[in-house]
Amino acid sequence: MKQTNWFERKFDFSTIQHTFPSILERLIGTPARIEEKLNGINPAFYTLKPDNKWAILEHIGHLSDLETLWQVRLQDLLQGKEELSPTDLNNTRTHQGQHYLKKPEVITQQFRELRAQTVSQLEALTEEQIYLSALHPRLKTPMRTIDLFVFVAEHDDHHLASISAMNRMFLSQPKQI
Hints:
The chain is 56% helix and 5% strand. With 177 residues, it is mainly alpha-helical. It has one domain: Four Helix Bundle (Hemerythrin (Met), subunit A) (Up-down Bundle), CATH 1.20.120. Strands 1-2 form a two-stranded antiparallel sheet. Helix 1 (20-39) packs antiparallel against helix 4 (104-123), helix 2 packs parallel to helix 4 (104-123) and helix 2 runs antiparallel to helix 6. The mean pLDDT is 92. This is DinB family protein. Residues 29-162 form the DinB-like domain.
C-alpha cells in the first residue's frame, strides 16, 4: 500500500479530546521504535537510496533535524505568538546532513536526546498550555499545542512507515541492490 506524501496530508484539529497522555506516549516511544526497526533491517540497506530518495538513515536523521523545530514551535505557542515558526520546506538540513555516512547508533542517540528534551518540556505543561493556539504557516489553520504534537507523532509514524516500506522493497528485490 502506497503512503500519501507528507505535504499532501490533510489534518483536522477541530475536536477537543483529552488525549495528551496518549500523544506523549507515542512521542516517548519513537526512539525505541526506531531502534527496534533498525535491529530488524539488514544494515546493508541503511544507506541505499532508492530512486535517489532518502536512505533509511536519512529518514532517521530527518527526525532529529526537525526536533528543534518542534521545540521552537512549542516556545512560539507558550509565548503567545500568532503564527508558528516556519520550516524549511526543502529540508535543506537533511539533504546536506549526510546522515547516510553516520553510524546508526550516533543518529539514534542524537534523536533520543533531542526527543527527551522535547518530552521533558511537554510533561511540564499545564492543561491551559496544552490548548494554546497559533496559526500553522503551511497549513494555514490554527494549531493548538496538543495538535502540534499529534502532527509530530504522525510525522514520526510517516517516516517509520517509509522505512518499513523501503525494507520490504529491498527484501523483495535483492538482485537489484
